[in-house]
Known about the structure:
With 334 residues, this protein is mostly helical. It has helices spanning 20-33, 45-48, 55-72, 89-98, 103-107, 110-118, 125-140, 153-170, 216-225, 241-254, 258-264, 270-297, 299-328; strands at 6-12, 37-43, 80-83, 145-147, 178-180.
Amino acid sequence: MxxxxxxxxxxxxxxxxxxxxxxxxAIRNFVRLQDEHDCIYAVADLHAITVKQExxxxxxxxxxxxxxxxxxxxxxxxxxxxxxxxxPAHCELTWVLxxxxxxxxxxxxxxxxxxxxxxxxxVNMGLMDYPVLMASDILLxxxxxxxxxxxxxxxxxxxxxxxxxxNNRYSDTFTVPEPxxxxxxxxxxxxxxxxxxxxxKSDENPNGFITLSDDKDTIIRKCKRAVxxxxxxxxxxxxxxxxxxxxxxxxxxxxxxxxxxEREFAGxxxxxxxxxxxxxxxxxxxxxxxxxARILKDKxxxxxxxxxxxxxxxxxxxxxxxxVYRKVxxxxxx
Length: 334
Ligand code: ATP
Ligand code: LTN
């Protein structure tokens, strides 16, 4: 009784269609964690522009992601839900943290290297500074816990390093956060077209990913086409990355363990299994899509959620920012 809830922060970029990888690795946990924690969730539009975005599409995707969060079960009455660019403190803290971040550590980040290679015509300072902005997101709210997929672990480590570095230089200011990464294969859902690669919404081959807005036929078609391994036995194994990935996805959508799935499909082939995976995904996504469409129609409601969220987030963020400004020596009146 009276025990303080742990603070939690996370965000997703409005950079296109959200995949079942984003859902299993991150968004689903946002929902699960909301009762036991003080949760703050953002639509990370400042992060999204580190790669080229069509302005009209970015606006649309921001609204869609907000509606999707709510349709997935995030309750705006329980959580703070807001759009990152509506709270200027994120950029302000980023500037201060930039002065304790080293170019060497930023240029070593795997995501920076990957995205620089993929967007060679647009390697900008924002892309390199991405993890510092992410650290600011988290540290502004004194979050203790950050639910993310396994690919974000390195950025979380940098966030921890920056928090510790600042605390050591200027005295204790920031909570040093811990990542919350799903256990097992849900932390990294692999591409259906190449199960050695992460499922990514920016994959140029749309058969590699399933988005949360794909209809049932598309979902089943993509599952049927999923690259599987030699043999025909539904069994999770290191040398069977394609089937193992489908077993992980099936488990995430049905709650069944790998062993249960292997038993269920013993004696049946890949064909039956792939259709069952598609159906299990569609059973969860179709009602979610209907809910999202309903929410999207009510712009006033969404605008109100964003406005209320930005106000609540700003209040918390301002408190941390003014502490930071005081510690670094900015004159704030007598
Ligand atoms: P891109 O794939 O285009 O680089 P992204 O999907 O990784 O983008 P975000 O939208 O910011 O980028 O990711 C939101 C969350 O989804 C993050 O917590 C990330 O770790 C998680 N996530 C992304 N892909 C996967 C995946 N394949 N499996 C599990 N979690 C994932
Ligand atoms: N970089 C993240 C999205 C993100 C984020 C954050 C996640 C932006 N700010 C703060 C956790 C905490 C990604 O998942 N690609």
